[in-house]
Design a protein that fits this description.
There is one protein chain. The relative contact order is 0.13. Strands 11, 12, 13, 14, 15, 16, 17, 18, 19 and 20 form a 10-stranded mixed beta sheet that branches. Helices cover about 50% and strands about 20% of the residues. It is elongated, with a radius of gyration of 33 Å. It has 4 domains: about 1-55 and about 240-380, no CATH class; about 60-230, no CATH class; about 380-445 and about 615-763, no CATH class; about 455-610, no CATH class. It is an alpha+beta fold and about 775 residues long.
Length: about 775
């Protein structure tokens, strides 16, 4: 029982350092638990939300779908159900001279939906003619009151918002910078002049196979099949993004737990160094190595248990809160905030075992010391490399020598603080790299508006050239395309889309960075250049390969001559406009560079053929909206890691001060003032803080490269550029100096208050 009494006594006497260790372990376990809890909740709820809509397995875009065709399709082998729908893309006025895309989904019977469903939240059901229900996440995208919409080829109409619905199968409207509306077939006819439904939605157990078979059968029946869309089965448009984000956050949180464990090893190592003679005495009176090791291991075990007890409820709260924020951003309803049982079990194992495993090394080394070695131990080293330092202020010289007295502890402390700082710098570097990537990507676009037309209209381009403020207009080719019989496009028409674009030979509108091969040249008749996101539908395509792209059911073959880095656009393949017009059709896309975008918008308001307008400003907002949650969480975890590092410095400094208690007594006895003692201790900690800043900056470079590669591939299929943030370096320099000074303040003050008698009586 005496050794357990000693354990309790050690904990009480080193209460400050023990509290730091508990706080550090709790921070690490909380980070891991919060990420795991949020991931467990979101993974379950995103699937539940998406599947609750009974999403269509495939959507076939045809010339028309009537009741007779529906009945025939429902009887086809492998088809479980079929419904007819339609959608129309219009422009809605959001200001005197501003417009925004509005995607309207046409539902023939709101009460008989069996797939691609949504739920009513407010308003009339179904919406009366001339009104629309909007998706609840689109409320900030759609203006209040009557909404004026411009339909291609028709006069402007005014729709009234009659209520809201929840459609979790769609990406949030605020991220896409567009509105989502739901209208009846009667309203559709009133808007467009036609009530023809042109989308065939089917449910099947084998989506791609059955969709191809149905498409072939329809073609044999004389029906024109424009596109076959088969989105990933059972997966929300942003599910892959969310999973990748959570994996990255978990890696950062795991590194935080490792840092906390290293802190424990550092402090326990210092405590053991302080108690070498006590260990020698215990061994001299019969204690075995296993008993000594078990005694100190029990201390670490108690610390881990205490930290885990504090971390589990805190991480549960943080995980639920973060899941709630992400759910709101992804437009999900959380039916349950229950955390999977595996999460607290992993936390318990991590909080108890990881610190114990890391601390096992110094515990084993100390427990195996012999009685002779223990009695002969004289404490801290007297001769170190710092002894060669000459010509420095005496107080500063003592501070530097103290820092190097325990090289092993210095390495651990520096490693701990540098790792925390490196993670902090990495978080801010990645955020800066993201912004730089967007800035460079948008700088490669030398236009302000992208106007997509339903049909080619050269007269429109000529009219727009006369609009004041318009500097240049280029006519581009545009056509949805696919590399196979099916595309992975979602119902919103954006996620998973792939387009073939015809570029004017002398274009000045884009200046993409070429990653491999070359850009298009005048006279190219079969050359194609693909952008970064084209690696999704074309994962194995290389420069020199032949590439077959289908446009409106017709196959066109091209030769890949290059790849370019493009930010902010879906997958695209670029060919010369002359080749596009020869093999696909006339140009029907306008790129406009203007000093007065509202004036162009006013001119477009009267156009009978304009279909959609995207401004570079809206594009930037859409790109930023997809990832800022990750950047924010990454920076928050980075700050947490930096705090763990500063706790490690405080704990190591406290241990060093205790070890040098008698030395401080001698200093006081020969005339040193309390201020001198404080300056020596603070000089040591500030020096370590500055040294860690240098190491952090160096370590952050490969870390920023690695994280930027993962994040860039996730968002753009191209790595983020390595960006060293001056702001991050400045903040961490300030944090390292101020934090290290703060970490040394308490032990320095304690050392300065010791009287000579108290210090000499220290055992």
């Amino acid at each position: 029982m005496s050794r357990w009494t000693k354990v309790r006594r050690d904990v009480v006497l080193a209460a400050g350092r023990m509290t730091m260790m508990v706080a550090a372990i709790a921070a690490g376990v909380t980070g891991v638990g919060a990420v795991l809890a949020a991931d467990g909740i979101l993974s379950r709820e995103i699937s539940r939300n998406y599947l609750s809509t009974t999403p269509a397995s495939a959507t076939l875009e045809l010339d028309r779908v009537d009741d007779a065709l529906l009945e025939q399709v429902r009887r086809r082998p492998g088809v479980l159900d079929a419904e007819a729908r339609a959608s129309i893309s219009v422009r809605m006025r959001i200001g005197p001279d501003r417009f925004r895309p509005l995607l309207l989904f046409v539902v023939p019977d709101f009460d008989a939906m069996r797939m691609a469903t949504f739920t009513r939240e407010s308003g009339a059901w179904p919406p009366p003619q001339g009104t629309m229900l909007i998706e609840r996440a689109a409320r900030e995208m759609v203006p209040r009151g009557p909404v004026q919409v411009v339909v291609p080829g028709r006069a402007a109409r005014t729709l009234t918002v009659s209520g809201t619905v929840h459609d979790p199968a769609l990406a949030p409207a605020w991220q896409e910078r567009a509105g989502y509306g739901y209208i009846t077939r009667q309203t559709y006819a009133w808007l467009s002049g036609s009530a023809v439904l042109d989308q065939l939605k089917i449910r099947t157990a084998t989506p791609a196979v059955t969709a191809r078979e149905v498409a072939s059968w329809l073609a044999a029946q004389g029906r024109q099949v424009h596109e076959v869309q088969v989105p990933p089965t059972g997966r929300h448009p942003h599910q892959t993004q969310m999973e990748s984000v959570m994996l990255m956050l978990l890696i950062f949180a795991g590194l935080g737990l490792v840092l906390a464990a290293v802190l424990v090893a550092t402090v326990i190592g210092g405590l053991l160094a302080q108690q070498v003679r006590q260990i020698g005495v215990m061994k001299a009176i019969g204690a075995r190595t296993r008993q000594v090791a078990g005694m100190y291991a029990a201390q670490v075990l108690l610390l881990g248990v205490a930290a885990t007890v504090a971390a589990v409820p805190l991480s549960a709260w943080a995980g639920r809160a973060y899941a709630g924020v992400v759910a709101e951003l992804l437009n999900l309803d959380l039916a349950s905030a229950a955390i999977p049982l595996r999460v607290p079990l992993i936390q318990i194992a991590a909080g108890v075992l990881v610190p114990l495993l890391v601390a096992a090394v110094p515990i084993r080394r100390a427990a195996r010391i012999t009685v002779r070695e223990a009695i002969g131990d004289y404490g801290v080293r007297q001769e170190t490399v710092s002894a060669r330092l000459k010509g420095l202020n005496r107080t500063l010289l003592m501070a530097l020598r103290n820092a190097f007295r325990r090289p092993g502890r210095l390495v651990l402390t520096l490693g701990l603080l540098a790792a925390g700082g490196a993670l902090f710098l990495t978080g801010l570097n990645v955020a800066a790299g993201w912004q730089r990537n967007i800035d460079e990507g948008l700088a490669a676009r030398h236009y302000d508006l992208d106007v997509r037309l339903v049909t080619a209209d050269p007269a429109l381009a000529e009219r727009l050239r006369r609009v004041p403020g318009v500097r240049r207009i280029e006519e581009w080719g545009y056509a949805p395309t696919s590399a196979s019989d099916v595309v992975t496009t979602y119902p919103d028409g954006g996620h998973g889309s792939f387009a073939l674009r015809g570029v004017p030979e002398a274009t000045t509108m884009v200046d993409f960075a070429v990653e491999s091969g070359r850009w298009l040249r005048p006279g190219d008749t079969d050359a194609v250049v693909i952008n970064s996101l084209a690696r999704n539908p074309l994962p194995d395509t290389e420069v020199g390969d032949a590439l077959t792209l289908k446009v409106d059911g017709r196959a066109t073959t091209w030769r890949v001559v290059g790849t370019v880095r493009e930010v902010g656009s879906p997958a695209a393949a670029y060919v010369t406009r002359s080749a596009f017009e020869q093999r696909v059709g006339p140009a029907r896309d306008l790129r406009i560079a203007t000093n007065d975008a509202p004036a162009v918008q006013r001119a477009l308001a009267d156009s009978p053929v304009e279909a959609a307008t995207v401004s570079t400003a809206e594009l930037r907002a859409a790109v930023d909206g997809h990832i800022y949650v990750l950047i924010t969480a990454l920076i928050a975890l980075a700050v947490l890691m930096a705090l763990v590092g500063l706790l490690g410095l405080a704990a190591a400094t406290g241990t060093g001060v205790v070890e040098r208690t008698r030395e401080f007594a001698v200093m006081r006895a020969i005339g040193a003032t309390p201020r001198t003692v404080i300056n020596v201790v603070l000089g040591e900690t500030v020096f370590i803080g500055l040294l860690s800043w240098v190491l952090s900056a160096l370590l952050a470079v490969p870390l920023s490269l690695a994280v930027g590669r993962v994040l860039g591939d996730l968002a753009f299929r191209t790595p983020l550029p390595l960006t060293i943030s001056p702001l991050a370096l400045g903040l961490w320099a300030l944090a390292a100096v101020a934090g290290s000074a703060l970490a040394g303040t308490a032990p320095a003050t304690r050392a300065a208050r010791l009287t000579v008698r108290e210090a000499l009586a220290y055992v």
